[in-house]
UniProtKB/TrEMBL annotation:
Residues 22-233 form the YgjP-like metallopeptidase domain. This is YgjP-like metallopeptidase domain-containing protein. It holds the Pfam family YgjP-like.
Amino acid sequence: MPSIRIENRTIEYELIFSSRKKTIGLQIDANNHLIVRAPQSLSEKQVNDLLNQRSKWIISNLDGSSQMSKNHEKKFVDGEIFLLKGQSYSLKIDFNTSEGGIVEIKDDQLIVSISPTISRYGQSVFIRNLLIDFYRKEAEKTIFERIKYYLKFFDSEPASIKIKYMKSRWGSCSGQNRLSFNMRIIMAKVDVIDYLIVHELCHLKHKNHSRKFWNSVKAILPDYEKRKKWLRENEYLLQL
């Protein structure tokens, strides 16, 4: 991963070249990672030179993004709000089961039942692991269902599909057409989930972010830019 030195800090960044880009674009994601989108005509050294010119913006926004993410870090306590397909649910912890742990939705509550024998020190980790498993299963159901719907727009199918926890990426398509999706996307509204699915399915044909790629996305989702913008601006809310 490329990096740049700014104010005695080594900052790694994800570099994405695009034939559509005329100028360099910067983004700080929910995990406080710098993403750089640059024209294909630029070399990595030229990108670093341009980043040095934007050093104040980078430092300011990295620090601001870090604070925003910290403000939304989950503590896994009663009353905390969790999202599922765009709906808000209040976490309720019940200490009334001898089983390994149960997660269920009732009305506007996300109820986690755990054994009262679990130590207070280990509760948050235990609850987080239960919720990760719950969200993964919910993501698998919805994502496979939505992929099945959207495959009618495509001439080929993915070689495999994986749903997993990822810190900084929402999805990917390998050169062998293996798709991966971040399970945390299940927290977003279904129209945003659909955008991510269509985005990755379009990579089956276009392995870049060229004009042809974005035209393919737009042909299926004419308002994709609105959905993409929502994910970019609200990804810090989709935390576990």
